[in-house]
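Predict structure. Chain length: 227.
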Amino acid sequence: MPDALDAVPEIRRGLLSDQIYDLLKQMIKGGTLAPGEQLVESGLAKKLQVSQAPVREALKRLTHDGLVSHVRHQGSFVATYSDEEIEQARVARAELETLAGRLTAGRLSTETREHLAGLVAQMHDAAEARELGRFRELDFTFHRAVIEASRNVYLPRMWDIIEPSLRSLHLLGDPDFVGDWGMVADWHDELLAVLDAGDPDAAAALFRAHAAGTLRDMVAGSPDSAD
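Prediction complete.
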């Protein structure tokens, strides 16, 4: 039987790869690494002061996730999206949130309800302070929390798949939105209220409108949607 310590260097390399994967994933999701930007393995290794092996493994995982595209003989690039893919991401989000709204209506635990209400309150504060980066993260956290509250174990996994696209394509929490962020926070009050009301059809309809960017048509006088 091999000595147990023989596996330690391999484990350490694996942990290093995980750290690089998490770092690059967050940079892509946050927009620090822009769509189409080339990710040079040797350059990343030099900047991170590591060998190329863990960088290579991290890039492979990001490619599997759809966040990075590998072009033969050219290298790895932050994924870009065609108009068709953008529309597909929009449809996928709308369908996922519609289902989450339907499944979650009337089923919020006290703890989850308080968590969602707290997020909306923080969104109002962030909107008033014009802290749009914080607002955007609260927005994503709110929608992810509703997905989790559906109690369907598959929905959060699906959300994890599409969230990077939603961030990159600004299909949720658009940082370039020039309308009233306070109104966007108000919309989240309405989403929480419809979940409290316990009508699955009404919740599904409102969440679909919100995800599809047509909630403004359901609220008189609203500006264009930030998400």
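Summary: The radius of gyration is 20 Å.
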